[in-house]
Design a protein that fits this description.
The structure is a homodimer. Chain A is of the alpha/beta class. Chain A has 22 helices and ten strands. In chain A, about 50% of the residues lie in helices and about 10% in strands.
Chain lengths: ~525, ~525
């Protein structure tokens, strides 16, 4: 694989001097165009020690306008980072649209090092590479331009390079014992590199192997590759917009007719027993009991550093806010945060739609409650046509991957759909109109959404079908009776926490994959 | 001071039931209005253990719309937080305009506890309270509405409360040995509380003492106080906007005539020797030498966890970018970040202007380079009239306070003003027009700014006068000759780093106040 990168390619000084000025000019011009484009550029540097990763990044900083460049390097995770899933810090470090992010020691470092040092076997290594592939796919599907450079040196060239650096009075500090250790392990690194490149070089995020032997050659090679890729993408984008977009205009009408018969579709929601109710006395006693229990469970979870994420979705006026308040009333205000998902800020809008949810992942032992969530992608964005068909369709896989990372990190994840019938919603809307301090909750949009009930019901059905997994099940709540709904939410939460705390009673490590299914009665149970 | 808060005030159940619905309604309505207002609300809870701080915050979450509420509590700082000045985490936690932030265990906790436990004497305690005052003043001057509630219990009432909690099967977990320890130290807490309230209760950020004896009473008292304060502020704001704003319309003409004589003002800049230059051979040798030195110094700084912050200000085309690149070329790309200050994002615009700079404070051992900075407040914002007179005038003190916190944390701070003459600027503008890949750097705005040279010069003079302190001096760079300028920047940086590393050679603690003045030849030296 690396044979062609051991040719000792060189760029003569004269050629370099001739090539660099126009290259620089093109890069600066491209960067200006890019600032107005709606995609970010992610450039990853990996490779053999001494092959010039850091120097190349420095060179790019000199050639490009550093104002629109963001360089990221990741060392040992901080305690805030250790509290979250591994990819949390990578997500937060992604460049916004219109900018270029340069990544040194990125998400590839840990998997490769762990494998080379023998901490992970081939199966675990492959699994980590799969995670990388899914991550990059999520970004690329959203439009990110991903370029990956593998900087290569032959074993001999690396030896020469390390020796040369060691002798330099200015640069000898760069060489540590570790570098020589790694040189001894050259073959293992190369084997791991080959596997990595083989498994993760995709059409969307290809690796380019660059010979690191000559400084001038590798700088120009990398810069020219970036120039060509950005140029190509910008030209492509202008072609697409000239031809009138992606033809999703028929989305609404298509959705409105899920089957030819004209009868309302049979969905998972139509199977719920909407007559479920709870008498006032039972409610008061249950509320007290479950709140006390929840309080105790959360204290234990806090001590054991187990975080909880709650997702609330449901029809307008289904009682999400009321259910959330019955939960928060049992918690210490220091422990939880309610995130209401409204329109994204411009920083959020400049990133992949999942970025704003990654942002709020709680520290160990805390509770984050999302009032509406990432599922907006496959609900409102799908139904209202805000997301293109291909975007919301692939969101199921992206969401499953996101949630799997939460669960693997030991986070207890619960997802509630609060269901009411259209008749009950109408009754509640009318009630809200009467109560002054509730009337503001009712907007024109709420009435409009009502008209698209069937579309939403279908979207909910698909959502549950695609994203209710063994590890991250949906809990459907029959919410025509508020008391019943609140108690079911509280009970489910208590049961899940109990199970999680039982499971981890004698463990401090994150929950392993394949942990037993929660005892909670989810929609599948 | 607390006598009036030991009256065992109670709110009868009937009264409570009568008062709460209209109160809630008003609060929700206010919150809706507030969302469109241009100020944040900061509510601080402090006081005696068991006086209901957490319960009150929970109650507010139930009464208000949690979507626009942000609750913050601060425990032991994380390692990321320890790497920055103490107030970093408080700054980042501030609510944006239009929202309410509820703070439990805020910036008051640590100073009070340290003093009660005898870790700090009266002088240090007072100094910490002064810092708080300055912090709150900065926020209030910018429009933040600050409310501070001291929840009080008499010693006897606290005893009863702790006993009662201990006996409750649901709540006994809340009481730890520490609570009883604190109860034993009641008098010391009260003394510290009195001092705190006396020193930090200002017209802009007053304390309100609330008796915590009765749950209904304290909840309604706090909620009503919030309602009244927000109501008052909203009414005030609408009055101001009705009367036509702050009358800064004449700002430009006033500034343009700094003195009656019509002759150009004598400023600090007019005293610079603009003939300074460096021959090419000298430059090449010096550049190499200082870059090698800088590289070594930064490696040591990294090891010793000493961060550096560089601020670059200067005329358009004065060569800020070129100087920065000569620095970054000597650094490892992993160690530094260049922050180009352009228009704020909407998240940034929703906070105090210093917030976006706090955001980028580097972790220990790293370098952050600000290409333009917080000084925009007293330069472009002043000259162009973007900031009101009173806003930019108080910015000097705010900036000094901000920088003092950086230096106290052990961060090496350098501030460069790159100075060129108007003639040299014109020459460079014309040159830029000729070179394609530089022409984009030249905008209409650059030409406009040129016309206001005298205003800017005056603003620079005032800036240096107000913010060049012994600890945080400005270095004025004669930059008509690019080579001279770059070397002076590099040399100054190396000298400052050397001094800082020498000073901290045998210390791991942050640099103390009163550290010796840097050996650098600053404008004052």
């Amino acid at each position: 694989m690396f044979r062609t990168a051991e040719l000792q390619r060189k760029l003569l000084k004269e050629d370099y001097r001739q090539q660099v000025p126009p290259l620089r000019e093109e890069l600066l011009m491209l960067q200006m165009e890019l600032r107005k484009a709606d995609f970010p550029v992610i450039v990853i540097f990996a490779g053999v020690d001494g092959a010039g990763k850091g120097e190349t990044v420095n060179q790019l900083h000199e050639w490009l306008d550093s104002r629109w460049l963001i360089t990221q390097a990741f060392g040992e995770p901080s305690d805030e980072e250790r509290d979250r899933p591994e990819y949390w810090r990578f997500w937060l470090a992604l460049p916004p649209r219109g900018r270029i992010g340069l990544f040194l020691s990125s998400w590839y470092s840990r998997p490769i090092l762990d494998h080379v040092y023998g901490h992970t076997g081939p199966a675990d290594f492959d699994e980590q590479l799969e995670r990388i592939k899914a991550f990059e796919k999520t970004l690329a599907d959203d439009g990110a331009l991903i370029l990956k450079f593998w900087m290569h040196l032959s074993k001999e060239a690396q030896n020469n390079r390390l020796r040369k650096l060691e002798k330099s009075p200015l640069l000898h500090w760069r060489i540590s014992k570790r570098d020589w250790q790694h040189w001894e392990m050259y073959e293992r690194f190369i084997a791991a590199a080959e596997r990595t490149i083989m498994k993760t070089s995709t059409g969307q995020a290809p690796w380019k192997i660059v010979e690191g032997y000559d400084e001038r050659y590798r700088s120009v090679a990398v810069a020219a590759a970036i120039r060509d890729a950005v140029r190509f993408r910008l030209d492509e984008a202008s072609k697409v917009s000239a031809s009138g977009g992606h033809g999703d205009a028929n989305l609404r009408s298509k959705l409105a007719q899920p089957d030819a018969g004209g009868s309302p579709p049979v969905t998972i929601l139509s199977r719920l027993d909407m007559g479920e109710a709870l008498a006032k006395e039972n409610y008061d006693a249950s509320l007290k009991r479950y709140q006390a229990k929840l309080n105790q469970l959360q204290r234990t979870a806090r001590e054991r550093k187990i975080s909880t994420i709650l997702v609330f979705e449901g029809w307008d006026a289904a009682g999400k806010g009321g259910s959330i308040r019955r939960i928060t009333a049992a918690l210490d205000a220091r422990d939880y945060r309610v995130i209401q998902i409204a329109a994204p800020t411009d920083e959020e809008a400049a990133h992949n739609y999942l970025w704003r949810f990654w942002r709020h992942i709680p520290r160990a032992g805390r509770v984050t409650i999302y009032d509406r969530s990432w599922y907006g992608r496959v609900l409102v964005e799908r139904v209202e046509g805000f997301a293109r068909t291909r975007d919301w369709q692939r969101a199921y896989a992206e969401i499953n991957d996101f949630e799997a990372q939460l669960v693997e990190r030991g986070i207890v994840l619960l997802k509630f759909w609060l269901h009411i019938t259209p008749e009950e919603q109408l009754r509640r809307f009318k009630e809200r109109e009467q109560i002054t301090y509730k009337s503001w909750k009712l907007t024109e949009e709420d009435w409009r959404n009502r008209e698209r009930w069937a579309d939403y019901e279908l979207a909910v059905n698909d959502m549950v079908e695609h994203t209710s997994t063994r590890q991250e099940p949906w809990t459907l709540i029959e919410a025509n009776d508020k008391r019943y709904a609140r108690i079911k939410v509280l009970r489910t939460l208590c049961e899940r926490l109990e199970t999680a705390l039982g499971e981890t009673a004698d463990r401090t490590r994150p929950r392993a994959k394949g942990a037993k299914k929660s005892a909670t009665k989810s929609f599948k149970g």
